[in-house]
Amino acid sequence: MHGGLTVVRRDGKRLRVRLVQACCSQPNDYGIQKKRGKMPKTKALAAASSNTTNEPARKRAKPAVRSASAVSRRLRQIEDKRSAILGAALGLFSRFGLHGTSIDQVAARADVSKSNLLYYFANKEELYVNVLRDLLALWLEPLRGFSAEQDPSEAIGDYIRRKLVVSRDRPDASRLFCLEMIQGAPLLRDELDRELRTLVEKKSEVIKAWVEAGKLAPVDPHHLIFALWAVTQHYADFGVQVQALSGHTLDDAAFFEQTVQNIQRIVLQGITPR
Question: Which one in 12, 29, 171, 209 has a CA-CA gap of 20 to 30 Å to 136?
């Protein structure tokens, strides 16, 4: 029949199916136009995958790449924040010790949140050890300059001045180190047995070479180093006593120079060959 299709169902009834051209798109094997429907999920996914693969590279999302200046700026910010935390911790630890200082106090003094502080240092003990390591490096730096090629009077005289500068500018660092030593160095013992011992033994060999060359009077290197530490750090560790008895501190420029010259004279006259 033109314009229609007769379909025989299983129950024997006949049905006429009218072909509607307007809603059809593609003919099947029987010439019947089928309406467009939704694409099956599997085909849709395949098409989407194909489109993504074939999409021009310029249209794809690219990972953000930081410039060298941005990375450098970020690293400086991290180091500045870390230094601020260490500085705040040093001031508190040198006054109240490890057990008398809380993480909250350090965070408040450094002007950071507690969670931000704990991002840099896992706990108070780790923060304390990092403070000690930093000040140990500062404290030992003047000693690293000793070499056998130097004139001993100049080298030791310069060492005395540099140690007094540390006592003047960083008295809190000297006091904290002293406090840790008095308590038996429970958290710094490993550092003392490694870095400090290695450096002292190395510089002791330099002093021995000076003595053997006749540039210094016979003196035990360890006792000389201990004496230099004691006399220079006294002005930081016992600064209150120094001020009470002399009326001055190392912040007084004239008193600072007087202190340097007197200690140099006392030490060098005692170890210079006669």
Answer: 209
